Amino acid sequence: MLLPLKDRTLCYDLAGPETGEVVAFTHSLAADLGLWAEQLPALLNGGYRVLRSDLRGHGGSRAAPGPYTMDELADDLIAIADAAGIERFHFVGLSIGGAIGQSLALRHPHRVRSLMLCDTQSESFPDAATHWGKRIATLRETGTVAAIADDTMERWLTPAYRAAHPLRWQQIRDTVAGCTAEGYIGCAQALADFHYTDRLGTVRIPALVACGSEDPRATPEESRRIAALLADGRYQEFTGARHVPNVEQPDTFNRVLGDWLRHVRAQAR
């Protein structure tokens, strides 16, 4: 489905029973809503309603002129939820999606039932200007995210996963390569300029912070720190996974997510 707005069009998918609790997913930089394909069947079988959306300039969403802010990207999800008639939802976000979840919790706490923040950070890395600056320069020079697709996949998934699942690996790589340079650059600029660390202690929403043990950038140490800052935070590690544990270890991820949602439901009674 498409949501046309003033300067952009947002793409989203909504599946499951209208009476089910909504679980909203936000993907990582350069991915699209298909990154959650492994989670969809398990949640539908559990009676949940699943909302997946594409970031600006990713997948089926049209980019707005950049740069973007993390709060603007979070407000895109609120706009989608409003259009779909969804008042409250559980949120699952990976990488930049996890940062977007923190913005939602800080600015729209009445809309969020729970948080699962995966392989993410609470503020821009100290080397953000250099790290993202180099990638932005490459994309502006080449005009395509394909130039950094192989490097991205190296960080996201292990060689063992690629050997065992070559078709799925190729699907994800093709999606990365197909991301628009404008959308990537705008979101990278949001990642290079945000800071939620000092405010996370005010978040009272139940939160599970998860991370692949082999994530080379959004490290387990960073995730443990975020969980400790949150008033109702806990930590979960996916041993042997890199940056995308929901794809690399889908059965384990789905079990953890399902257990988490049941815990939140029981806690709310």
UniProtKB/TrEMBL annotation:
Query: Keywords for this entry?
Result: Hydrolase
Q: Does the keyword Cell wall biogenesis/degradation apply?
A: no
Q: What InterPro entries is this protein classified in?
A: AB_hydrolase (IPR050471), AB_hydrolase_1 (IPR000073), AB_hydrolase_fold (IPR029058), Epox_hydrolase-like (IPR000639)
Q: Which domain of life is it from?
A: Bacteria
GO molecular function, a single term: 3-oxoadipate enol-lactonase activity
Task: Give the EC number(s) under which this enzyme is classified.
Answer: 3.1.1.24
Top class in the EC scheme: hydrolase
Indicate the segments forming the AB hydrolase-1 domain, all copies: 23-248
What is this protein's name?
3-oxoadipate enol-lactonase 2
Q: Which organism was this protein described from?
A: Pigmentiphaga humi
Q: What is the lineage of its organism?
A: Bacteria, Pseudomonadati, Pseudomonadota, Betaproteobacteria, Burkholderiales
